[in-house]
Task: structure prediction
Amino acid sequence: MTPSETAVRGFVGRALERVEDDTLLRGQGWFIGDLDPLPSTGHAAVVRSPLAHARILSVETADALAAPGVIGVVTGADVARLSHPFPSALGDAAPSFHACAVETARYVGEPICVVVATDRYLAEDAAELVRVEYEPLAVASDTATAPVVHDRSFRYGDPEAAFAAADLVVRASFRQPRSSATPIECYGVIASWEAATGSVTAWANFQGPFTLHGVAAAALGIHGSKLRLCTPAESGGSYGIKSGVYVPIVLMAVCSRALGIPVRFIEDRVEHMLASQHATERLSEVEAAFSHDGRLLGLRLDLLDDVGAYVRAPEPATLYRMHACITGAYDVQDVAVRSRVAVTNRCPTGLNRGFGGPQLYGALERTMAIAARRLELDPAELARRNLVRVEQMPYRAAAGAVYDSGDYERCLDAVLELAGYAELRAAQAPARAEGRLLGVGLACIVEPSVSNMGYISLAQTPAERAAGLPKSGNSEGVSIAIGPHGGVTVRFTSTPQGQGHRTVAAQIVADALGIDPADVDARTEADTAANPWTVSSGNYSSRFGAVVASAIHIAATQLADRLRALAAPILEAEPAEIELRDGAAHAGGSSVSLRRLVGAAHWNAAGVGGEGLALTCTYTVPIAAADPDDRINGSACYGFIADVAAVEVDPETGVVRVTSYATVHDAGRILNPLIAEGQVLGGLAHGIGAALLEEHRYDADGNLETASFVDYMPPTATELPPVRSLQIESPSPVTPLGAKGLGEGNTMSAPAAIANAVADALGVDQLELPLTHERVWRALRR
Amino acid sequence: MRRIVVTINGRERAATVEDRLLLSDFLRGPMGLRGTHVGCEHGSCGACTIRLDGAAVRSCLLLAAQADGCSVQTVEGLAEPEAELTTLQRAFKRHHGLQCGFCTPGILMSAAELLESGERPTRREVEELLSGHLCRCTGYAGIVSAIMEAVDEPR
Result:
């Protein structure tokens, strides 16, 4: 590509290879397990509860303390003395909890005490010498009968009238199983308590949201500014789950305080499975009212989430993240929702890719497929009759989401074509005649991105909200600077774990300044004491493409304006007439190199330096607080996804093979198609795993049966189907670059699409995820 | 404790190690080779895969003592630090075969063994090879494409 083409087309929107890759391919990344920032750091091994619910009668540490290399043992009593219970959105409704069990353990794997030694081997040796006496208590192991600690009802439009007018009401029950995203790198923390200042410095592979930084500081009993939180340059995957590392951050900070040395904790795989954080199990009851011609008239949803032993921040967010768009991609305004939270003796829940989306669409999209069967309509036709139409954009959904842009019907048409839908349908009858079971499943979903900081306030009644302070928006801070020799550094707190933020940031900055992306260094290591950040910072709710990219664009544009101001007297032109391209400022046939402008600004600062060439700015997406009618625009942007899954089910064994998968996204403007495609395929792999393989199973005593990669099976390369994907770009009017998020959608859609395909193959309505061969074999014989 | 001598990435290294020290911890710790990543410590995820006398093996299932007298190659031994990436590494970059990069070194070592074998696997066979590795970022398609391309390129 020549420079002039670059100037016309820019770098944004191009499939640039990633700047992150060379380091990682050489094994030269710095992950949390590679950092050793402070001398004399102790290594922690955590003693964990073997029982799901038990009173802790005694913790005997003498043998452990006498073991070789042991520096100290920190017990629940120490943790209760040196920290506070974590604040919870539901207050006293659920059991309060510290970073470690104090008097009662409430799930298998809950920390009981921490042994700190000079190396990890010795710490683990000594951990085995700790003697804990327990009195077992009754275990809540069934979500349906577990204590309910939160119960809110919502009503939009006139659902009673809609159901009274219905020709058909479809009723169905669903269970979305527990799962977790299982990044290959587990949690890691290095924490140092500084007694003289009463402050903590912690390094951790935290991923945000930085609301949880405040939660951790509150548990430590220190002001937020006293908790300096740093993340390494690299993080070995997260997909939401490393938001929960704030809990071991607190635990290790307490250990450091108790023992007077920095403490390191690198979680192992079993610990990660047992005690990091799961996705909620959800039980859903859905009623959908239809007219005879397939118009969706009204919806009733009764949702019950199992959040595990504690309501740990940001729960009960799984229930409310999708609330604003709870009607999915369909134009229906008469809706009733009941949202409840149960506590069980299981691992606490929190962010996992799709957060709330698989739970919603696993019920809603299955309901649409069941309705299509009852109405004797093709599912694609039923969807078409109900999708929000392009001329309705921006569309205000019943519960308050404002769908900003999107051509849903065009995406539907595109996916039907991409999948060869007509051919797939035509192949079913002949195959069945040969005893082969082919199924086709559709899912049409809305994918929210950039969470409104206020959505969780729906857990409060309007009166409770009115008594407090409003919450709204989502912001990111960006610092950008040009050094005296050229070269741009841009810093922001997006805490990526492989999404190529540095690459995309360089593309955006390069376009704004008319330079090569290679001349831009994006730094994404978080440091709350040095870098710009906000409570909404972090890498969740697919917020990079919409809010972080916007903030980078605005910061770079402001810096470009300063360069134009410097160039104006030299070029004898108005700043607005000056174009930045190819590393120079151009106007009226003359030009001056950026190198000269930048050099003058730094070295002749008193003469022509102007405002300097470093600035920090914060960009906020304008999304308002909840209204008194419980409506909120829960996210800044809403993408759309239409998926078609084709499956073949072996009638003898119940094995489900996904034979092809097609997905079409409308996620606004695509900033880097290579990275976008990677996010689509990666999110889809999580969705397919959840559909076919992944479930965290507990027995009646609350023991996790899936605590290793032998028992909990993420998909390998052999289980994933050939995928065809396509992006249709309806730019978002909300964001300056027109981009939305897109990393979670297929995690939300694929379980539903595949379940619909298997139900279609079997000719049944009732199916439970994941679709293991045993479950499907049993369904075949019902 | 015992004295071992291991040739690591072409260089002979001597060390005194505890009998129970895992090979993965030996490489990451005293040998300073942080590119070998540990994801499960029970031989399931494949992130810690290295080559021991040419064979791709999981370093979390071996003791450092078992590598005594052997030749070990880690991801740091694929391309010289200041040199160009190898054909395989370049293909991973081109096909977006990595995101977070944590599982990548192990996959590269298994793929390097395959490339050296001179075999011409099908896409399906590459998928089978990869079934010993977990990647949670990519959905594997880019990894398979990268390996297929590297197999096809002259070395």
Q: What stands out?
A: Chain A touches chain B through 52 residues (CB under 8 Å). The first helix of chain A runs from residue 3 to 9. The two ends of chain A are 61 Å apart (CA to CA). Confidence is low (pLDDT under 50) at residues 1-8 of chain A.
